[in-house]
């Protein structure tokens, strides 16, 4: 997502189409105003699709935690989205988009403070950027990506983390950590200047969420009884129908995530590209799901639905760094490799005793790294060394910054519930409210 | 009076209930249970990790019948619940000292 915002409009740029300088009659019918409207529309549609991913994450996580922790997981999901909205408005948006005003060139934005919308009822001349889209749509769209990053973390740390320290972390993640590193790429910072390519955020969004989750999972430790006497004890989720619904909602939302990241819909070329992106995004999800289905059948003699759900999501994460240039076959393959990564990374994390309840780290971090590398397969403008460099820079920053915040929270508030609370379930211990009060707990 | 306790495979419940009704049984207590017997547990894999399912779901039937028909009822359950495969269940028979119908206060065979 390259932001092509310019602070000041040249008069020529506004008046050009009206002066009839367009090259042919067909192009002349698309005015600058229409382009601006269509771009804005793309952000609005993309934005509410990505918003719905919040529901997808909630259902996926609700289905994969045990029934005694479902109310807590839902509470975290609603709260994290809402807090992300406030944090992104209060500091995040301007930190992420300095629009050329840096306090440290290419690294730290020089614009601080609240995000501000355009005035009511503007015309094109009154727009912040008459060549791009409305600020309201841009803020709305970008906010959804920021919130998605936080959603990734909640699943990995489920069933044992305290509510309030988690929410404090969310505010830091969505207000500072995410927007700061996103400015390096999407705000026109040093990674962008180097030629780093990350179309919709395999690294900027997904890996960052994954790194934050990994740091949290390491510092928080596994759930009681998960790893005992050298064995891994599965803790099956409470509702695989909900988890599947969550996966499908995320799949749907991803069309907005990747399609909207074209950032333009005002020309034949742009809308054709958006449709390429939709088709490729879908193909990659299918590739990831099919590969996970077949691989779990071969490895375990029975297909594992939860792995197939993760496989589809890993396919989606894998294609997110470059959903435009691959062919359909290549997109399927890129997604399929994401599926392979998940099937092997899930048991690997268990071997390392890193307890990730929903598979967020394999899906968002591991497949995110793969997707960022896979850009070089189809986009001739990508450089492998720049991709790798950016993966490492963003990774080290996200992991260290998140780790520091987790450590501070651990030392001050404590991040883990008591053993008794964990065994009884966070629903009753922390909230006093069961998700399924009529049924016995498992 | 005899208390007959039977564990059966869950999908056999309807068939057994029909056969018992046909045989004149007028009441039946049913509980969903888990347990293990000769069938024991089995190994499954969840997200790449093996785990043992130690307890198999079963249905427990409890019914009290007059002494005279107890053997016949046991035979009915045994016949209808049988698949011939491991895990078909068990039937236990216990003497019952007294039975009371709460609504009328009737006792003994009249109460069942």
UniProtKB/TrEMBL annotation, chain B:
Record's keyword terms, sorted: Nucleotide-binding, Phosphoprotein, Transcription, Transcription regulation
UniProt cross-references to SMART domains, sorted A to Z: P-II
Pfam families (UniProt xref): P-II
Protein family: Belongs to the P(II) protein family.
Subunit structure: Homotrimer.
Annotated protein name in UniProt: Nitrogen regulatory protein P-II
Taxonomic source organism: Sulfitobacter pacificus
